[in-house]
Amino acid sequence: MDFRFTPEQERFRADVRDFIAHHWPAGRTPGDAEALDARRVRTFRRALAERGWLTLAWPTEHGGLGLGPLWQAIYIEEMASAGAPYRDQGVDRIGPTLMLHGTEDQRRRHLPPIARAESWWCQGFSEPGAGSDLASLQTRSVLDGDEFIVSGQKIWTSYAHQADWMVLLVRTDPDAPKHRGISFLLVDVKTPGITVRPLVSLPGHHSFNEVFFEDVRVPRENLVGELNRGWYVATTTLDFERSGIDRVVVARRLLETLLAHARERGVPRTMAMELSELRTGFEVARMIAYRVAWLQQQGLVPNREASQSKLLGTEVHQRLANLALRMLGPVGLLRAGDPLAPLAGLAAEEYLGSVAVTVQAGTSEIQRNIIATRGLGLPRS
């Protein structure tokens, strides 16, 4: 891996920063990370789509710029660092999954609206009894002529309340081994029988939802991949979800703020050493995330590397948030808007948000299992 960027890539980084300064100048303030105005976000993403940046890593034949994952990593790093709304499941996960596993009709129907920021997607994977052990999901679907009839429940479905479409994992063969009886469907969220209910997270944001399906009819043409082989399509989607550099840089602002605070006011030697260690950890995690992008740029599938990136990035983030509260003391728990809150409430915001980062998109335990079995070749227990 070459750890240096080309002059063209560095100019692109500068262009992204300039774009953010003009189109998202306010940045992100503590408390609004998941409650950004939907219309403002869509306007911003349409401006990105007009420049081609929304799908800059997509192949040109699918409406992208063909620049590849390494350029996308630069773009995401700058967006996440500035608090701009960079996350889009349609662009980052669903589109690439359809390119690999979808039919020509599915790609022709769904990829152009995603590239133009005209359709919003969510991911219906987790269930109340199927989180880390996702393959134990119980949402059922049976074929009735040319339609699937879906019944069941999903949970922690990010942005389902705003989404137009959902990718949905359903059990289509209850008698098969659990990994082999699952199918992968594309579902219009406006279909009759779908109910979306909000779930408010610990920091007080509404991004999660629970979704109920009651005899929902889905055209058979919306099946992605083979019937009962959807698990292998889903693992592709999960790799795209876990491999982003955003999991490393979202806490960079807290790191930089704590460094400035320590220089100005001083901290005990043990905390200074811990802060230095975490700064090093962030840089290592950043390099691993770039390695994932570099491997993708070579046309490889970095399965274990994606898990390494997700594991280290989120655990360093969580440790940093814990250190922030220990450095600031009880007053660090004050939220944004309180005049006595240190660091404008940033420490409390990151602490509450960091509780979930080692769980969502696959727990740290799941990532360690993947690294052990697929990376080190260790036997399954």
Layout of helices and strands:
Blueprint: H1 7-23, H2 38-51, H3 69-82, H4 89-101, H5 104-115, E1 121-124, E2 140-144, E3 147-154, E4 165-171, E5 182-188, E6 194-200, E7 206-219, E8 223-224, H6 230-242, H7 246-249, H8 252-265, H9 269-297, H10 303-328, H11 346-357, H12 364-375
Parallel strand pairs: 1-4
Antiparallel strand pairs: 2-3, 3-7, 4-5, 5-8, 6-7
Structure description:
The protein is of the alpha+beta class. Helices cover 47% and strands 14% of the residues. The protein has twelve helices and eight strands. The protein has helices at residues 7-23, 38-51, 69-82, 89-101, 104-115, 230-242, 246-249, 252-265, 269-297, 303-328, 346-357, 364-375, and strands at residues 121-124, 140-144, 147-154, 165-171, 182-188, 194-200, 206-219, 223-224. α3 (69-82) packs antiparallel against α9 (269-297), α4 (89-101) packs antiparallel against α5 (104-115) and α4 packs antiparallel against α6 (230-242). The two termini are 33 Å apart. The model is unreliable at 29-35 (pLDDT under 50).
Structural features:
381 residues; Butyryl-Coa Dehydrogenase, subunit A, domain 1; Butyryl-CoA Dehydrogenase, subunit A, domain 2; 3 domains; 4-stranded antiparallel beta sheet
In short, what is this structure?
47% of the residues lie in helices and 14% in strands. It is an alpha+beta fold.
